[in-house]
Write the structure tokens for this entry.
Amino acid sequence: MELVTISFKLNGRPVAVVASPLENLRDVLREKLQVLTVKAGCGQGGCGSCTVLMNGEPVVSCLTPIVNAQGQEITTLEGIGTFNNLHPLQQAFYDNFAAQCGYCSSGMITVAKALLDHNPHPSREQIIDALAGNVCRCTGYVPIIQAIEQVTDSK
Amino acid sequence: MKQLGIVGESVKRRDGIAHVTGQTRYVDDVSYPGMLWLKMVRAPVHRGILKKVDVSKAEAYPGVHAVVTAKDVPNNWYTILCLIGVGPNDEPVLADTEIMWRGEPICAVVAESEEIALEAAQLVELDIEELPPVMTVDEALAEGAPAIKKWGNNTFMYEGKPYRRVFIGDVEEGFAKADHIIEGTYQLNPYDHVPVETQTCVVKPEPDGRLTVHSNTQALYFTKDNLGIILQMPDYKIRLVGGTVGGGFGGKVDVVIEPVTAIAAMKTGRPVKWRWTRTEEFRNSSTVGMYRMHYKDGVMNDGRIIARQVISYHDAGAYHRHSPYGVQKHAFNLAGPYNIPNVDIKAYCVYTNRQPSSALRGFGVTPASFAIEVQMDKIARTLGMDPWQIRFLNAYRNGQMKAVRKVVEDATLIETMQAAAKMVGAELPEWCWKARSDDWKG
């Protein structure tokens, strides 16, 4: 397939990549743009560890063809918070031991950010529902839910 | 009283900030200039004779740097516990003459990109004469079953016997004396660890002949030792870089990714990455194999278990890996933390043409615990006894003799149950609250 140039905004700044149109957004971010916070867990859209926000909506980047990103706003974990400027969600995950191996954390926090942007006071059921596409094999989910609840309570 | 600095404090994870900011480095985040990708070609059938592997078309495919086959493996045996006497060698690193399970690795295509490696892998031609597979423990142990292991049967041999035996006293005498005989069969089906991070390895061949190996193994020393044995390389030539494991649970203790990646790196002279797909993680990584445990207990009217006979079958899949060790541990725990004077245990480690199994959390012991405790509840129901009380009654005390012929020391079942009972507000008679693990006077 012929290579094309795809331009989009990544965490607020304009970027452009040369890629095959059906190359997936996850691999483009990781391999071409060195955005390593996006994780590869399954390549099948099933685990959620590759979750990024496209125009504020969570998408599984492993199943998003790069052409779909043309002209869009992509947000990854770096755009949510960094270690010298933590987002309250990141602080809450840290405080509540919501990360053990850490592999699902990027996707979990990204999805939680989207949830709170849409619904600043979700119920526990709404939180659980929002996390339905993200698999964690270590924590049993409870600390993750508690971390998100903590942020909503303090708002 | 001495001031304790850290004991009793809740300490935040050292890597916590890195995790929540996505800065923790996993093996998939490791990259070197000129790095190649590896894809494995795997057996499509459960059992057969591997007659021919034709890699010529794959080798010729544009972008392919090498195809690694059994011939490229210096010492083509993966016997992880060989250093503690578990044998004989049974599992080749890459299949050479026979196929023992569907998914068994045969040859590895190493190419410029994951996509090219996948495309070239389709061009490998395999000539396999299929053989009837043995797919269950029952099939493996049936009269006249094909012997799939080269020593002539389908079980691991523990000191000349096809099972691990643990016994004390005389169960038949116990059954004769008992007021009730209570039986139960308990089965744990195969399942998988499913870590969110799949097994991944990057090997960089160094100009001085050494190897830098990045692996998400849970067991660096297993990897280092077995790599040295398989590659026939001295220890000092292998530099193993471990790090954060994205979920292990026992699923990343087998040395099944590093050897071929290392050989690929040496053969091509380039760094090589092998990242398992989710499908490989489900269908080709070590699972937990089936356990089926048959309990026959001789129980008195007052609830004392005086005889316990257990026959246990574990489906290890095609190869040893850790199973002979796991079944041994399993056998030692099958009687449970209870004082039973007559015990007879036979635990079989059975081979079938299935995905090899290995360690998973509480290796060998959790299946036993499951069976033991469900059986305890069955005994309680049969006798019309309270399930707490039957456990307080039978719990072994310090100084008593276990079925494995060791004296009980530091028993804590009673104290743990008391703490649990308090937590849930269970109503217990006074004698349960008064019981202690060291209240047996001999």
Notes: The beta strands of chain A are 4-10, 13-19, 51-54, 57-60, 73-75. The mean pLDDT of chain A is 96.
